[in-house]
Batch of 2 targets.
Target 1
Amino acid sequence: MTPPSAREEVLGRIRTALGPDRATPAEVARDYRLTDGRPAGDPALLELLVDRVEDYRATVLRCPPDQVDVTVLAALELALGAGWARGDVVVAPGLPAEWRPDGCDVDDDRPPVQLADRAASVTAVAVAIAETGTLVLDGSPACGRRALSLLPDCLVCVVTADQVVGSVPEGLARLDPLRPLTMVSGPSATSDIELQRVEGVHGPRTLMVVLAG
Amino acid sequence: MEVALFATCLVDTLTPSVARATASLLQRLGHDVVVPRGQACCGQMHVNTGYRREAVSIVANHVRAFSGAQAIVAPSGSCVASIHHQQAAVARRAGDEGLAQAAEELAGRTYELSQFLVDVLGVTDVGAYYPHRVTYHPTCHSLRLLGVGERPYQLLRAVRGLELVELPGADQCCGFGGTFAVKNADTSTAMLTDKMANVLSTHAEVCTAGDASCLLHIGGGLSRLRSGTRTVHLAEILASTEDAVTPHQHTDPAIPA
Amino acid sequence: MTATVPPKAPTFLGLPTAPRGVGHLRGDRSFPDAAREALRDGQLRANLGHATSTIRGKRGRVVAELPDWAQLREAGRALKAATMARLDDHLEELERQVTARGGVVHWARDAVEANEIVTRLVQATGTTEVVKVKSMATQEIGLNEALEAAGLDVYETDLAELIVQLGEDKPSHILVPAIHKNRAEIREIFLRTIPGVDPGLTDDPRHLAMAARQHLRERFLRARVAISGANFAVAETGTLTVVESEGNGRMCLTLPETLITVMGIEKIVPTWRDLEVFLQLLPRSSTGERMNPYTSTWAGVTPGDGPQEFHLVLLDNGRTAVLADEVGREALHCIRCSACLNVCPVYERAGGHAYGSVYPGPIGAVLSPMLTGVEDNASLPYASSLCGACYEVCPVAIDIPSILVHLRAEHVEAQEKPTAEALAFRGLAKVMSNPRLWHLTQRAAKLGRLISRGKPTLPNAMPPPISGWTRSRDLPTPPKETFVESWVREHGSGS
């Protein structure tokens, strides 16, 4: 007789631990706020998002929907300072053409580490959660692969008003859990030294948000 | 109303003035006080030290002693919390469902003093007079297990002559914790030191609370430091009138030999 | 080759606990002994006092912001309880989903087996170094030591873990393992251990963080294998989740070719939707932020994005023994936020090392003894004044004080021979169950009046265990008469 595999043994232990007449789990009451009450893109939600993102010491630039490209340029100008070149900026391959500043590099299937020496990247987002100031990237062509929003030291995210929802439950409901997701709430940060928050560790040290609409 | 007084084992044995004050306060408010002679202990010390089996007979004695009482009042948040949260569970685990139900039923009629005064009797001004600078330590079990909240403050604010000063870090434990104070004496002392530092920073003459056990701890430390700040149970302050402004208390600074 | 037989693990209800001789769940001293020493470390006390009060304030503010915190907390508790009741089914579903999306699932009965699996997987890639994301499970099993014993270089990449690793220290907090170190100490460690570090490094936390960034950047870019833990795993979709701040997690989860995730079996949640609760509870409870900077989720392998080889190791290591304890199993609901550490007056003073386990503080004082069997960590359930602050802040409402009390009883009841303490408590129980004996004993207590010889307090020097009290606190002299005695004298023995 072969000894039981670890799988069989662990599952068997769980069954032993729970006993033969385990209780049927009670229905979980989801009586917390499922929605914020305001529709996506509500002006008050946009205000809240700006407030919460800026609280993480990220910068938000707002613009009309038809001026995303110039606002992205302004964001890059602000973040990178004098002497930056458009070729140092990589954009997600699916970023809408009208958002894309001319002369920027478009990400392709190069080895991801080659993105490390780029100054900035520009991506779209899948959803933005106002209450927590969270942007979610979902690995779609417009958001780019995960390395794109990670390795360059400055990340510019373009958010449209219709993507802004109020609460975490509303945000997660819009996402596909089978995609690789990255939820971004401000620039990378650490509180590991005396619990004092310091922005900028391994991820992008600068986060710029362009909010269109 | 007839009120049965549960003195608690610690108050009965070490600080009887607290039970006396509780009785005289309730009598002054027009209630009949009875003291069941069969009372001893709620069983908390045994349960919290790991002797839950041994605690069953203590719980049974408590239930027996108070079985006829309409309302039971104790000058201790900790003991009342044990009556509410531990007694029935201890009996049930030992397989004594009858005792568990009797304990639950009794718990429903058992009140901590400040809860009894404010919730049951509906009074916050008990007519007390206590012309001292006082700070209040909201003991952990009163605060978190019973949720007495604002009640002791309401009662203290209504005391004539009393100057109530806020205690910094009030919600932090004093380090008593029953046998914790002995088993982890060093950590307990470290917690006590910080509690005393906060008490002393208020320049209060008196530190009060709703638990004689925590006061025994804080008072024992303040006495050892010869700080001059005394601990006085809430019941003693509320029992004080113009006739007796300084109730007895038993942690007067020791006189060095 | 000589095979070392690990010492036999104790069992709970026939279920094996975490084995001895491997991992970091057992201290070499009792809590009171370790704490006694730590309490004398003024710098430690100052560092911890400062850090925990800072984080308590932050947590309080962001929790108060949510009008539905109580409902979220109850939902979190209920979700965890429901998950545990069907843990076997959920794990099998997780395995199916991860496998369907290109991942490989491994099962590990204990630390030894998990370490073997991971070592074998790393060696199979041909690399000699791995980068790691902070993970409690891999600390628990002593994975770094196992990999190093196999000749592999292991690089911790979380800033606090890096500080601990470079300082050859031990973690002392679940979330901030280097909480016991202040900026000056960290600067000194970096100057001493990081090759080529700027000698002008200051103790500004920003500069220290930048030094860590430079030190690790190249390692991230060349790493071929990463090892992570997981905060949550969604059974219905096979989605793994890592919650972090610095971006070191993203580096490890994104850049290497191979990702190995070691996860305790209790980290599972049934559905994607359940994360809407936990992603609100966790960041606000742990770092006191509305949301942590980065949360990464992935399901198996995504072509063209991230590691193309993914292994998930499901770890028992005593968890099923915890599950078997009907009172204690609630401890498996823990989401490792560390809010209970930050509010614990005992943790704040004694520090994390005194607990001897990677899980310190109130949750550690219940989890460690249950994972190892209570006799292997018998002093931990007593390392609490039962003040209840931990229960009050726990985002999934684990009643830690009640579990502590339960484990004290488990310890007492595990003794084959009665201890002096047990005899005393049994005697006292008899007395307190019988009013006549009780009154006689109270009278005997008045003998203390003889010892105090007319003074208001008893002498400072008393025999143990009373000396534990009288070393630092006065004990009042017992009164002449008990309350009940005097009442009966004055009022008769009414009712």
Target 2
Amino acid sequence: MTTKPTRRPTYYEEIRQKGYSRRDFMKFCSIIGAYMGLEATGVAQVANALQKTSRVPVIWLHFQECTCCSESFIRSSHPIVADILLDKISLDYTETLMAASGHQAEAAKAKTMKDYHGEYILCVEGSVPTKDDGVYCCIGGKSAIQVLEEAAEGAKAIIAWGSCACNGCVQAAHPNPTTATPIHKLVHGKPLIKVPGCPPIGEVMAGVIIHMITFGRLPELDRVGRPKAFYSKRVHDTCYRRPFYDAGLFVETFDDENAQKGYCLYKVGCKGPMTYNACGVTKWNGGTSYPIQSGHGCFGCSEENFWDNGPIYRQMANFPGFGIESNADEIGMVAAGATAVGIAAHAIATNLRKNKLINNVIAEGKDAEKEL
Amino acid sequence: MGQRIVVDPVTRIEGHLRIEAEINNGKITDAYSAGTMVRLLEEILKGRDPRDAWAFVGRVCGVCTSVHSLASCRAVEDAIGVTIPPNAELVRNIMYCAQQMHDHVVHFYHLHALDWVDVVSALKADPKKTSEIAQSISNWPKSSPGYFSDLQKRLTKFVESGQLGIFANGYWGHPAYKLPPEVNLIGVAHYLEALEWQKEVVKIHAIFGGKNPHPNFLVGGMACAIGLDDVSGINAERLAYVHQLLQDAKEFIEQVYIPDLLAVAPYYLDWGAIGGGLGSYMSYGDLPTNGFADKSSMKFPAGVILNKDLSNIMEVDVRDDSEVQEFIHRSWYEYEGGDEKAGLHPWKGESKIKYTGPKPPYDHLNVEERYSFLKTPRWKGNAVEVGPLARVLIGYARGREDFKEVVDSTLAKLKVPVTALFSTLGRTAARGLESILVAQWGLEFYDQLINNLKNGDTRMANMEMFNPAKWDKTCQGVGYSEAPRGALAHWIVIEDQKIKNYQLVVPTTWNASPRDPNGKQSAYEAALMDTPVHDPEQPLEILRTIHSFDPCLACSVHVYDEEGKHISKVKVV
């Protein structure tokens, strides 16, 4: 195929060419706006930007990974989102989907790096092993370190997809045998967005990209570099089972009577109280469910070093720095044994006590963030 | 003089695979398959809570997501001696079917199709004729001339934009592409439809496991409690959702995937005699219908076929230390015992990384010595191929009616003998054929689940042994599965409630591994031998055969610590 330089069509033009109506387009903009937590005026801004902007070239690198981030990305639920992201951004390099292999693949990447120097978005999936000259991950005969450095040089901005790229994920868990290293520790002087999670939610990934191409800038980030739109609330605070926590009603063991009633999973290890993610609001797979809704606790997959934060089924309180387990246990047992009137009374007392405890936990979490 | 070509990265796969091949007179005369990434998950698992292992090893692969978690739960349940409730078995089976259907459709359209479908040729198709062909092969409603005409306009615009994205630098116009423009256009249409479809079927994982990729599992059963009278549990709405998704998936497989497979195959029947490779096949069996312990109840039967002899099916025992063994003679490892030619059973598996390859950047690997992070597994010393073709052949050779029906009817439609299955085309066809079966079985499992619930059995987890204090001081277990890419097993040794040793031997390790100490090739290398290559600069034919295996190299290097020494080993999925 020849590549002739023509004016790049805008998203709106392309959507119209694909047979979508203006109404479809506006609906899409509203949904994207909603994902980004925008007011109605912001939606208009999205629509406006998508009508004017051309396709942004994207290079997507794969290092020490399991490809769950790419898989999650293609799960993004709104039909036009899938179209736009695989068709509207110009995904010029991704080992998972591209037609070309070997040196033709490398040539496609090199061309984008040259033709769009300073303009392309670099997405990175996976961590980079730095031990032993980087021999533990080689692509096209080059080490991951070399590949990353080359591609980062001309990137406009970098997106670190998933926990591998943000914190090293499972291969960086103790004792991190290959020295799996997250991207922000290797690339400096470039705008970098962390989108952690194992994997991140598909619609969150789509939302981050749409934000960048719509507004021409990075979404607002928190202190550790995550988009505030999706990582500013704890799973616990957005959980529909939260009232059971507050009432002291807990699942004691999986598949018990309380599990069938959908009580709080805190005592079987849920890490929702220390996990910042959008699972409780955006949910997974087009809003179908999320881990807690399906009966399993959150294990904190978007948090730094979550693999080393203690066994999955141990009550979170046993974590270093979180000292509320005895209280929660006590409260749960008392509530379970009390009469209906008693439960209500205890619930009130519990809430007062827990608020203080929760505030402590949040404060500790913030301290931990500062350290990062 | 031969020509040495390198394909690295091999794209449209999971992970990092490198192929080096020797070409003489337009044919491959030697081939080397190398895995070039490792993560060392086994060292990381050591000392951890065995009940957490499913989550760690689940991250071996996000493409064939859930399969490692399933094998891991089975390994731990085997070790600690717990039987899961029938409902949990059925939910796991339904999730298995969803995964298999998703994986196979995505492989066919998004990872493999561009080896056979020329996207650029589709620009020349006549939409009316395309519609006629589409309607002659299927009742799928999206088949009008207008539909294909709109798609073609969209495609033309895309190409004219100059930004070709994932289609840039493809092998368009290569003489090995044989489809008429109209069939190419159907291929492109269904590439895009399958991309939308694939996000639906995995919602079954979200309903039972909370999310996909990487749904949650639980040692002892599943965490998704039945709660027919509660909004939180698995209730009538959730079940109806699962049923709808299973039906929709079956419809797509029957009306899109299979008709496309049968429409494309006649143009590539020469590939029914290329890429056969080893001719030896192995399946561990999966989809239990009477508890995992009852091997005879499995929908996918187990067995081994050697040298294309369908009349002699041998039994496989993953516990027998003389059957499955791993070798490191040509891999970047060393054994403690120093015996370079020894093979070790995974319960006693021992290995230590010793990278002796070139320092990057490099042009060539030293293929005469060690050249991969993959170890080399063997069954009783034999190299065997695993995957959909192995499963279908074993089901067929065992005389199972359901397998015979789909295989014989397909062979009849294509007018080819059963021997055509021993090939690149056979591998690709087998994936489709088993999808037909899996789509039916998924609905059967669903009906059985409903029946259990009607009869008042709502158990979803057996938590009797969840407390580690109840376990023997030392115990070991093995859990196996038939993952989309083939036979998968995890071996665990537990001591003092902690993981002492954890080993995985995964499908792509069987298929993509380097040579064994006798110089015998594994499946990828063997299948590439004698493959015709029209233009060494354009490795299209190599990609066809390699992709027919559906490579998944989310290699994990599993390092463990035995007797105080750090030992490592590499694996691939």
